[in-house]
Amino acid sequence: MGTRECGSPIAMSRPSVGEAGLTGDWRNSRPVMDAAKCLAAKSGKVTCQLCWAYCPDACITQGAGPAIDLTYCKGCGICAEECPAGAIAMVPEAEHGTCEIDAAAEVAR
Ligand code: SF4
Ligand code: SF4
């Protein structure tokens, strides 16, 4: 339940940071890309891009060396599974300590 500016209740809730899709503190692993193995990065051209195509949250940007936006990554590992070059590894969050992006999202809530 939400509230309009005039104070009247409305049935729909307003989107907040969490509901907008930001990864919270629940992701247990993150994708780490090795540019030395990435076909696009090695060729310097926008080739392959399978990680971009398969990411269900559209948090990988196309490029000659795609970039992963961890703000929205849920750690599903699909990109790592689909990468034909084995350039993406899923690494447990515990090995990274506190995720700075996630911490910033928590402050914004
Ligand atoms: S799927 Fe793998 S090789 Fe292809 S662009 Fe993505 S990281 Fe590079
Ligand atoms: S782990 Fe899943 S959500 Fe994160 S970048 Fe890879 S495919 Fe996208």
Question: If you had to describe this structure to a student in words, what would you say it looks like?
Answer:
This protein is of the alpha+beta class and 109 residues long. The chain has one domain: Alpha-Beta Plaits. The chain is built from four helices and six strands. A hairpin with a 5-residue loop joins strand 4 and strand 5 (67-68). The longest helix is centred in the last third of the chain and has 9 residues, at 100-108. It starts with a strand and ends with a helix. The model is unreliable at 99-109 (pLDDT under 50). Residues 33, 38-40, 48-51, 66, 83, 85, 87-88 line the site of one iron/sulfur cluster (SF4).
Helix/strand layout:
Blueprint: E1 2-3, E2 9-10, E3 29-33, H1 39-43, H2 50-54, E4 60-61, E5 67-68, H3 78-82, E6 88-92, H4 100-108
Antiparallel strand pairs: 1-2, 3-6, 4-5
This protein binds iron/sulfur cluster (2 copies).
Short description:
The protein is α+β, with helices and mostly antiparallel strands. Helix content is 22%, strand content 17%. The strands form 3 sheets. Strands 1-2 form a two-stranded antiparallel ribbon. Strands 3-6 form a two-stranded antiparallel ribbon.
For the biggest sheet, the summary is:
2 strands, antiparallel
Task: Count structural domains.
Answer: 1
* Integer-rounded radius of gyration: 17 Å
Strand order of the largest sheet: 1-2
Q: How far apart are the first and last residues' alpha carbons, in Å?
A: 18 Å
Q: Helical stretch count?
A: 4
Q: What is the name of the CATH architecture?
A: 2-Layer Sandwich
Number of strands: 6
Unreliable stretches, pLDDT < 50, 5 or more residues?
A: 99-109
Per CATH, the class reads: Alpha Beta
Say what the CATH topology is: Alpha-Beta Plaits
| Percent in strands | 15-25%
What shape does the CA trace take?
elongated
- Mean pLDDT across the residues is 82
Write the H/E string, N to C: EEEHHEEHEH
Bound molecules: iron/sulfur cluster
Helicity, as a percent range:
10-25%
